[in-house]
Specification:
Elements lengths: L4 E8 L1 H19 L5 E6 L3 H16 L4 E5 L8 H4 L18 E9 L3 H11 L6 E9 L11 E5 L6 E6 L1 H4 L3 E7 L2
Parallel strand pairs: 2-3, 2-4, 4-5, 5-6
Antiparallel strand pairs: 1-8, 7-8
Helix pairs in contact: 1-2
C-alpha cells in the first residue's frame, strides 16, 4: 500500500462484490417499481463506477439502462480549505431534465455523512428531483450527520483510525473492498 497504510483485511472479494451489486440493483428496481424516470448519479470518484455497475445490472434485468450522471462535489465540501490549496474540480455531468425524476445518489462508502450532505447541496443547484435516494456499497458507521442510506451493500464496523478502500475494475484494475490501517 502507499502513504503508510497497509491492508488489515478484505471485506468483499470480487465474487462477494458482484453478489452485493446484484442485490443492490434488484432493491433499487423493486423500490422504484421499475426504472422509469430513474437517474443514477455517481458522486466522484468511486460513486461513478458504482453507478455504472448498478446501471449494467439494472439493464440486464429490466432491458432498459437507466441514465447515469456524474456529480463533482469538490466546491460544496465543508472542509474545502483543508483538502488542498487549489482543489481540482473534475466536473459534473447531469442530464438536462432532472426535475420530477427519482435520483439515486451512488457512493462507495458512507462514513460521516459529509459527502452526502455536499452532494445534496450540489444536486439541488442543478434541478429539483421528485425524490432522492442514496445507494452505498459500504456503510461503515461513525456518522457525524443524520444521514442514512436507502440501499446498503454491506454494513461493517470500523474505527476512526481505519480506512475503507473500494476497488472497481474501471478505476483500479481489480474488484474488492478492503480495510487499511496505519503501518506501525
Amino acid at each position: 500500500m502507499t502513504d503508510g497504510w497497509v491492508r488489515d483485511r478484505v471485506v468483499l472479494d470480487a465474487a462477494q462484490m458482484r453478489r452485493v451489486l446484484d442485490r443492490l440493483a434488484a432493491q433499487i428496481i423493486e423500490r422504484n417499481q421499475g426504472v422509469d424516470e430513474l437517474l443514477l448519479v455517481g458522486i466522484r470518484t468511486r460513486g461513478v463506477p458504482l453507478a455504472e455497475a448498478l446501471a449494467d445490472r439494472i439493464e440486464a434485468s429490466e432491458g432498459t439502462r437507466p441514465e447515469i450522471g456524474v456529480l463533482d462535489i469538490t466546491l460544496y465540501r465543508d472542509e474545502l480549505s483543508t483538502i488542498a490549496p487549489q482543489p481540482v474540480v473534475k466536473g459534473t455531468r447531469l442530464p438536462q431534465r432532472m426535475d420530477e425524476r427519482t435520483v439515486v445518489l451512488c457512493d462507495d462508502v458512507l462514513y460521516t455523512g459529509r459527502t452526502v450532505r455536499a452532494a445534496l447541496g450540489a444536486l439541488v443547484d442543478f434541478g429539483r428531483p421528485r425524490r432522492v435516494e442514496l445507494a452505498v456499497l459500504i456503510d461503515r458507521g461513525l456518522r457525524e450527520l443524520p444521514i442514512q442510506a436507502d440501499f446498503v451493500g454491506e454494513s461493517i464496523s470500523t474505527g476512526p483510525d481505519e480506512r475503507v478502500e473500494v476497488h472497481f475494475p474501471s478505476t483500479d484494475g481489480d474488484e474488492l473492498v478492503e480495510i487499511l490501517v496505519k503501518e506501525p
